[in-house]
Amino acid sequence: MMKKLTLALVGVAALTGVVHAGLKASYPVSINTNLRTALGGLATARASANPNTHIGCYSSVTVNPAASYYGYCQARDDQGVNAACTTTSPELVEQMARLQGDGRLQFDWDASGTCVRIIVQQSSTQAPKAP
Amino acid sequence: MRTATAAAAIAIAAVTGYALARTRPAPPGPPPTTAPAAVDPRRDLDQQALRALIRATIRDQLRTTPAAVGPAVDVDRAASAPPPAPVETIEPTPAQREARRDVESLVADAITGGRWSDAERDRFVALAAALPDDERAEALRPLIIAINDQRVDLDVDGPAF
Question: 3-state DSSP call for residue B134?
Fold first, then answer.
C-alpha cells in the first residue's frame, strides 16, 4: 500500500513538473536568399550572441491626403546575411502590424524586393524578450 | 431589341423543352397502366418549321429596330447617371520632387559604397517624410534589391529605413 502511494505521488509530481515546464522553442534568424525568405523569433534574435542580429517589420498607414499603406521588413542573421522587403499592399501592411513583441516572423520577397508574403506567429512556445 | 430577345428566348425555350421532352428517359418504376396516356401538345410540332419561324421572327425584329446593333443600353438610366469621376492624380510638389531626387542620390551612393548605416537611415527618414508612400517604396527599391543581393551591408541599429 505504501509503495503504491509513493509511486502515485512520484507520478503526480512528474506530471506537474511537465505541465509547469511547457514547450519552449527558439527561432534564430534564418535567411535563405535563394528562396527569398527570412524567418526568426523576435526574442531569439534579441538574445543572439551577435549584437547585429535582428528581425522585424515597420508599418505605416496614411489617411490624408489619400489613403495609402507602406511597410517593410528587415532581418540580419548571425552570419551577417541581410534581407529586406517593402510593400504598399494594405493586406501585407496590416499583417505586419499584427506582429507582436515576442512573435515569430517570416517574410518572403520577389526579385524586385517587394514583400510577397508575411507570416506572423504568436505561441506559448516563444520566449518573451529578455533585456 | 428587347422584344426580339424575348421572342428568341421564348422560342428557344420552346425548342429546348421540346427536345428534352423527346429525349428524356422514362422515369423509374412500373409504367402507368390504368391512367390514359398523356398527350404532349408539342409532340406534333414540326421542329424544322418551328426553327424557321424563330429565325424569321428574329430577322424581322432586327430589320425593324434600327438601334438593334450594339450592346443594350438603358437609355433612361444612362441619361440620368452622373458622368464618370475623373481619375484623381496628385502631382508631386517641387519639394517632393527634390526629396525624391535626394533619396535616389542617397540610395545610389549607398549602393556604390556597399553600406547602409545609421547616418544614411537618418538622412533617408528625414527626406522620405515628404514623399508619398508609393514614391518612398519606389525610391528604396534599388537599395532593397542590393541588400538582398548582399551588395550592401545593413549596418543599422534599429529600423533600416
Answer: helix
When CB atoms are compared, the residue of A36, A74, A113 closest to B154 is A74
pTM (global) more than 0.95 = no
Which of B133, B134, B145 to mutate: most A Cβ within 10 Å?
B133
Angle value at C-alpha A20, between A17 and A23, nearest 5 degrees: 105
CB contact under 8 A, B147 and A84: yes
DSSP one-letter code for A72: E
The interface predicted TM-score (ipTM) is 0.81
Intra-chain end-to-end CA distance of chain B, in Å: 61
Give the largest Cα separation in chain A, rounded.
80
User: Residue B92: what pLDDT?
Assistant: 81
Q: Where are the domains of chain A?
A: 27-121
Q: Which amino acid is at B117?
A: S
